[in-house]
Amino acid sequence: MTAATAHATGRAPEAAPGAAPPAVTGVLAGTGATCSVGHGVEASFAALLDGRDGLAPLRGLDARRYGAGHAYEVDDRPDGRDVPGRAGALLVAAVREAADAAGLGTLAGVPVLVGTGLRELRSLELSWLRRADGPDPDRVPAPFGPDDLHFGPALRALGADDVHTFSNACSASLYAAGLALDLLALGHPAVVVGGVDVLTSSMFGLLDRVHLDPPERLRPFDAARKGVLMGEGAAAVVLTRGPAPGAAARDAAAGASRATLLRAVALGCDAFHATAPDPDGVERTIRAAHAAAGVGPRDVDVVYAHGTGTLLNDEAEAVALSRVFGADAPVTAAVKGATGHTSGGSGLFSLVMAERTLATGLVPGVRGLREPTPAAAGLRLPTGTVRIGRSRIAQVDAFGFGGLNAVAVLERTGTDAPREPA
């Protein structure tokens, strides 16, 4: 049994000759993030607490070609025109922030696992447009081909020489976090996990064709939600080896110095349907994450939901959460109402924001929520920032097409009181 299987099933690997080493937790030694509402972890979290969002008219795409004229884009385009390499640039910024916070001078020899839905597809689209429209050096300075889609070249600026990309739809970056725990268990002292996606004309157009009545904004768990709107962003964490899951609570009780641990990531693939999520599969993955982390539903203080604002996803996730938590549901955040759906990077972005909640005791309200859908009526979905009395365990959800489910469990150790964000 591999460590990855243990994360997916909630069972620890057997201590047999040749078996995988026991699972460990990962210490969040550094975090990084950027999105449409803020550049950097603290700025992004502060914007969420303030109730801001990044919804704006389309910048990089021609709005005349789509029914939906708005998205949640990072405003970093020179002269408002799209340029190649934006996904890599956002990723590098987030990884650099996380590495600096962790005190890593270089990423040489450190595995870097990147979760993404589309990699640098927008750069390839711009190259296609250049060939179709004729040379335009102001638009695309150099040809861009399929071999340039990965992020290894961009991350060389930070010394990275061991970069791996995982495309597991919208759960990609949490999948990468689960694989990072396996690498820590196998002896790596540190692993960097990143997640990123930017708008592409192909994906934006695909979703636009699905919405005959395009949504004016993304409304997680709202009864009047119409569907998803895309966003852009990147997130990163540096994970170092922590104690085995059973030892984390003992360390906290003994007054260990404060730290946030990635206790477990449950990975599932129920293959229920190409696009429709299965509440049974989501529920199984949540329960597997709790079992692998050694916690129960009543231990969870806050949930960062996937919350895409689509009819089927929000319904399935709300049903699964209600089954797991019953009448004692914890406060539930859903950041996509502020950031849009940042695709493969969204799970890790939520994880970074959940770490801030555990450190501060503050949970951002669900932007765009007016009246919860009946399935979510039993969930505690704040519309404004709230403070939770206890902030030790957080659950983070990310679900992708094809039943690619991922659920992470974080723990804040130590005895320090939560502090306000900077």
From TrEMBL:
GO MF entries: 3-oxoacyl-[acyl-carrier-protein] synthase activity
Region (Disordered): 1-20
Cross-referenced Pfam families: ketoacyl-synt, Ketoacyl-synt_C
Lineage top rank: taxon: Bacteria
PROSITE patterns: KS3_2
A GO BP entry: fatty acid biosynthetic process
Residues in Ketosynthase family 3 (KS3) domain copies: 1-412
Keywords: Transferase
Entries under InterPro entries matching the protein: Beta-ketoacyl_synthase, Ketoacyl_synth_C, Ketoacyl_synth_N, PKS_Beta-ketoAc_synthase_dom, Thiolase-like
Keyword Protein transport in record: no
Biased composition (Low complexity): 8-20
Stored PANTHER family: BETA KETOACYL-ACYL CARRIER PROTEIN SYNTHASE (PTHR11712:SF347), POLYKETIDE SYNTHASE-RELATED (PTHR11712)
Family in the record: Belongs to the thiolase-like superfamily. Beta-ketoacyl-ACP synthases family.
Name recorded for this polypeptide: 3-oxoacyl-ACP synthase
